Batch of 4 targets.
Target 1
Amino acid sequence: MPSDVVDDVVVGAGVVGLTTALLLARGGHRVVVVTAEPVGGGSSGRSAGVVSQLHGTAYRRLSGETARRNAAAYRAMNADGFALLAELLETTGTPHERRDAYLVASRPDGAGRIDDEHLAAHRAGLRLEKLQRADALPFAHFGALRLRDQIRVEPNRLLSTLAIAAHEAGVRIVERERVVDVRVRPQGTSVVETGAAEYEGRHVVLATGTPILDRGLYVLKTAALRMVAVGGTSGSPLLPMLTAIGPDGSTTVAMTPDGRVTAVGQAHPVGVGGSESRRADLVEATLRRFVPDLVRTDAWSGQDYRPFNPIAFVGLLPRGGGAISFASGFDGWGLTQGAAAGIRISRDILGLERPAWATTISRRATGPKSQGTGLVADVRAASARVAGMRRLAPADLTLLREGQGVVHRTDSGPVATSRTGDVIRSVSASCTRAGGVVVWNDLESSWDCPVCGSRFDVDGSVLEGGARGPLRTVATPGAPEATASR
């Protein structure tokens, strides 16, 4: 039986979920937030804490893939999201820093992309300063754009502030409960089911990065991207917030006055391209160009979704009877876009007038070409894994070193075997959502699906993504009983 009956059940406690819940509660609704992780435990909490309207070369991409009115709506959307977060931080007295944000070319061949972004952003209404030489950047660069008066904040502090504001507005937040199903009742209340309880509401908001319900083919409309972060300390002069365009994509760097520095880069499709630890080393190497005395203290990764459209999807989930809203596809810039998504979703649910940008964006459609791009990428990722699989002898598996994982063939299908904490575990290697063959993530010690982006712990339990069921535990051939699968 449902443990609670409310107006709205929000699934996920990142920026999208908490902003939506806060605004709904301020509008008089009874709201419960259900999250698999503690507040701050998802991708929002793993970001660099850059709240900025300068999103790398986003406008350059928009100018080549969508109408100019949509690019202008993207600018207005982010302006509203930025204003909401800025006001929240100011009124609550949450520590944060007002800083200029820069986009820089770290090599001569990136100068043209700087020019293209400047022109495309100007056409969309975002006024960026173009600089041939930025004195605030004490390293070699080949052109820069500047947007003044942006924000850097500790991401967990931002999420904590949102959570406290939501709680004070009457929102109930339930942590460490993963949603496994949603039973939709368009003419009544829908039921959100976790492993521990059920929550009933008139409307459900899926603020989970990607919709956990397979409706609308969003697994084909977005690409799951993993972004690697490196944190450390430095005695170098304080840097502004910057995104550097380089040969391996872009890297965003944020530094605090006390010398703590975070760099996020190496965005890549989940499970594709080899070792995640190696990617962390590449991010560190890039960061050392800006802070040569870096002392690395940590490395981790976060996940976001790149829309093939190319603007984030926000609104009603198809085939949800008008009872389910969702947001997905922020392409690594989820703080301002996530807050804007909360504005759009809450206003729709409360029956308030939409912002003009929301109406403009909602009228664009993902055409067959974009869906085809997603399908080709997914099939290519899955095929690469199947082709590289081989049968391993039991002795090979027992030789796995600590922190290693391997996918291998067995008579019953592909199996994923890992060794962590000196325990050898084996699980089915077939993702429970899309059937893709999982890949070992040596930075996070997880099994990642390159088809849908779902991620699993070494025991098969779901860590992230749209999979609602764990990987099946299987016996490890030849493993000593003390280290067998559990």
Target 2
Amino acid sequence: MAIRVVLVDDHEIVRDGMKAVLEREGFEIVGEASDGHTAVRTVGALRPDVAVIDVAMPLLNGIDASREIGVLCPATRVILLTMHTDAPYVLEAFRAGVRGYVLKTQAANDLCRAIREAADGRMYLSPGISSTVVSQCLSPQPAAEDPLTRRERQVLQLVAEGKTTKQIAIVLGISSKTAESHRVRLMSKLNIHDIAGLVRYAIQRGLVQP
């Protein structure tokens, strides 16, 4: 039986390219999504074997989407596509339950293997970042913890995407007052008190693309 896959990327042309490659290799593409929230709903509805998700997704980044998928559909293995090779990104991804971490620069060569490994219950790292993870594990300095809660991180991403407090509240299904409280708390935690600074931080964390 073919491995069932959901593809998540905000660029249709990228999804089309991945779909063509994967179908040629015998995978069954059962669904697609163009933002993090839709990805969670799509995976929850279709229950694929594997979800391939870009890290930098609108509305909800790939790592937080992976966390939600892990709760909603634990049998689905998540593979992240990314440009980031820094250890904190990699470690945070695996803490979120991701089973594969594939560099976009190597995706054509690595993705099929990563999907098969993940579907079989194993983990996969692109060769270009394996040394990064080993170095972090051997380092006497632990990786810095994210100071933000999951909800604060979601609000930060939406602020960086240019959403107003009202729009953030609608996207997250919370009140405007609650959305504003999250925004105030995250600014206090980060000691960043202007939108430009929040945008720069979100870019550094890989939550949005520059």
Target 3
Amino acid sequence: MNYSIIGAGNVGSALARQFARNGIATAIANTRGPDSIAALTQELGSTIKAVSLQEAVKADVVILAVPYLAHPSVAAAAPVWSGKIVIDAMNTYGVPPEVLKGRASSDIVAEAFPGAKVVKTFNQLPAKLLARDPVESGGHRVMFVSSDDEPAALSVAGLVERLGFAPIQLGSIAAGGDLLRKGGPLVLQNLIKQA
């Protein structure tokens, strides 16, 4: 499998650092073009390659690290999404409630990427914490994974683990969304799973 990160802001850069730290080759793109992220890719080394958006959407696994309202323009960059895994690492902070209409944001994302297997992860931690080494205090930082496609969830959980996190599967997107939407102790917490 090959990977791409779309978005080079705080979350996209944090994820690129995790891929680089673990020697996993990945592409990174944004809407401004590869030259705009050359400094980041030079800093992170040869495993992270800046590419165009059109090239990034060709990956087997595409990670959305863009502002939530930008995902339709990413979806429009590829004619076909069937067979791909799209990781929704976006949050809806600041998005008007009428945009979501009471629905899980990842369900709306799935409609924009027809045929793709959507998995929600990499979204519950602040970017600065997401960028840090996930090994802490003798354990691994927890990363929640939700999807309506169990094989895709298992595949992404494997990637999460390769990056050094402790994946915890929350089930379907609706179930995971309900759990995290409640606010409670799971959101924006540095939870560590002991080895």
Target 4
Amino acid sequence: MPSALSKMIVYDKKITENTVKKIFKLMFPHNEKLIRLEACFNDKALDILLTNVLKNFEGDSEKVKKEFIDSLVSTKSILLKDAQFILESDPAAKELTEVIAIYPGFFAIFCHRIAHTLYTKSVHLIPRIITEYAHIKTGIDIHPGARIGIPFSIDHGTGIVIGETTIIGNNVKMYQGVTLGALSVDKSKASTKRHPTIEDNVILYAGSTILGGNTVVGRNSIIGGNVWLTESLAPNTVVYHKSEIIVRNQSDFNEPINWVI
């Protein structure tokens, strides 16, 4: 039988997810205010939701709530830069509305931006619920503690993992399956920098894995698909994984096929 604590966490999770949806709708309404900064965030329903979300917070919840609401205009300004960067980076994107309305990468970035705001105010459980909601919806797992520059682009996105102590600079582009992780999951290292630093103007292509708190990818570098990296790179470096592909005519192919599926 579930305890009172487990019931409380489930209840808060649902309210938090509803709050995320509400904030997104207020921030990006489907009208002429979509890209305007003067959108009103002092919505009574949002105020009530945030009050319920923070009701178990042991600090000054009213102060946190006010500061969070006051930050939403500047957060929208940042997110519009993210959306524009995605639009400019993806030849398949035709307009800003498309990026905001349907791109999973943009939604994951939105969730991270608002979660990180709360995380910096020493609110811990709620930001994790927010980013896990994004993880469920998009397949993109960004810890709210990660520090991400402006603008930031995620294309496709599924399978991306960005760890808690990751630092990402400005104008970074990231594709599906990228992992910015730790070399070890030893619990004793919880308070240390375990995840890499990605400097400005870096491109991380699909399937690349970069590990370690001391690993720094220098500015203007390009990390190719499926690269496994545990060492720092100087600025302006290109790293790629070279695999051998053999094409042969079936009639000349006499080797046994030992593939196991």
